Amino acid sequence: MRIVVNGEVTQTAAATLAELCTALGFSEARIATAVNGDFVPEAARGQRMIAQGDRIEIVAPRQGG
Amino acid sequence: MKLHLYGFEAASRLLLGTAQYPSPQVLHDAVKASGAEIVTVSLRREGARERTGQRFWELIKELGVRVLPNTAGCRTVKEAVTTAQMARELFDTTWVKLEVIANDDTLQPDLFGLVEAARILSGEGFDVFPYTTEDLSAADRLLEAGCEVLMPWGAPIGSGQGLANPAALKSMRAYFPETPLIVDAGIGAPSHAAMAMELGYDAVLLNTAVAKAGDPAGMAEAFAQGVSAGRKAFLSGLMEPRDMAVPSTPVAGTPFFKLDNAS
Fold first, then answer.
1. Are B66 and B8 in contact (CB under 8 A)?
2. Distances (CA, A) of A50 to B83, B134, B204
3. Cα separation of B232 and B221, whole Å?
4. What is chain B's pLDDT, residue by residue, as a tens digit (263 residues)?
C-alpha cells in the first residue's frame, strides 16, 4: 500500500508501525514516531496498524537552538 | 545561589544551543568552554541511511549535560504538542522548550497558541519552558497554565540585536520577582548577556552568537564571563544613573579652590 513517510510517498507491505520501522532499517535506532499528526509511543508501535494514505513521521535527535 | 529550574540546580546561568556549529568537535569544545549545564536540542526527520540523529545523540550523551528539547518550527498547538511528546520519548526528559511560531519573518511566538499548548503539556506532566515575549498578561496566563519558568525574547531569534526592549524586560522582572526568568533569543554579544543579567534575569539562552563566531569556544567562554559579571553586578547593587555630573574626587581641599568656582 501507499503511505507517506517523512513527506515522501512510500510503498510498504508492513502491517504495523513497528514492522514499518524495522523494514525501513530503524530497528535499534533512537527514533520517535507519529501517525497522522498523533504521537505513537514506542511500546504502541506493534499494535498501531498502518492504513493506505497514512502520513508517518519518524524523527531522531538533532541540533537545536 | 544556584539557578533552580523545575527542581534542577545549575551553577551555570548560561544555556547554550547546539545548532549551526561548523563541526561536532567545535560544538563539543564550545559547550565545554561555556560551562553550560543545559543545552537545547531538537528533533527532525531521520533518514535510515544517513542516521544523522544517531551520531548527534552519541555526541550529546558524551557531553554529559542536561538537554532541553525544543519545538522549533511548530506553527500550531497540535504540531507543538505532538513534537513535545516525541521529544519526551526521544530524549527521555519531561523538559520542553515550547515554541509556537506565529510569523516567518520575526519568528515571534504565537502567544495564544503558546498558552494553549503549555496548558495541555503541563497537564501531561511536562516541565514547560515557554519561549514568549515580554507581554505581562501572556506571562500571567502561562504561569496559570502550569509553567514555572518564563523565557521572554531579547530580540528576534538569530538577529543578534541584543535586548530590544530593556524597559519591558525590567518590568517583567519586577512583576515576577520569584519566577525564574531566562532571556532567550536575540543575544548577539557578551555585553547583551551581561545586561540581561544586570536587569536581574536568572539566566540567558543563546546559540547563534557562539556557533557563528570565528572561534566558537572562545566566544562561549566570553559569554560565560559576561553572564557571571552581569549576575555579580546585579547581586552587588548597581548605581542609579544620574542626569548631571557629580565629582567622584573629593571637592573639599581642592588646591586653588575659590567659592566662585563652585557657584
1. yes
2. 20, 44, 44
3. 17
4. 899 999 999 999 999 999 999 999 999 999 999 999 999 999 999 987 888 899 999 999 999 999 999 999 999 999 999 999 999 999 999 999 999 999 888 899 999 999 999 999 999 999 999 999 999 999 999 999 999 999 999 999 999 999 999 999 999 999 999 999 999 999 999 999 999 999 999 999 999 999 999 999 999 999 999 999 999 999 999 999 999 999 999 988 899 888 775 55
Cell of B195: 545586561
DSSP string, B46-89: --TTT-HHHHHHHHHHHHT-EEEEB-TT--SHHHHHHHHHHHHH
DSSP states of B24-42 as a string?
HHHHHHHHHHHT-SEEEEE
Query: What ipTM goes with this model?
Result: 0.96
Q: Name the DSSP letter for residue B95.
A: E
In the set B78, B97, B212, B258, the catalytic residue is B97
Q: Is the pTM of this model over 0.90?
A: yes
Please identify among residues 134-163 of chain B the ones whose CB lies closer than 8 Å to any CB of chain A: 157-158
Min Cα separation B156/chain A (Å): 13
Beta carbons of A41 and B89 less than 8 Å apart: yes
The cell numbers describing B29, all together, are 569544545
